[in-house]
Fold this protein.
Amino acid sequence: MKVEVRLFASFTKYLPDSAEGHKVNLELNEGTTVRQVLEQLKVPLDEIKLIFINSVHADIDDVLKAGDRMGAFPPVAGG
């Protein structure tokens, strides 16, 4: 199944070379979780602040479905 993965801010460095900007389409097995995707990309799990699937807040152990758009943000500071 295909899933679009977006990583933001400092997480973009974990995207593969095939990424376009801050997103990449990945071919995943049915039943793959958000955690498994982030581990595959080597994103440090303890640095994740926000996860969403299809623009809705999600949990790290949620299962992805074909066509989903998943994103992850680190803590972001600003003024």
Q: What stands out?
A: Helices lie at 34-40. The beta strands are 2-7, 23-27, 50-53, 56-57, 69-73. The CA atoms of residues 4 and 69 lie 5 Å apart.
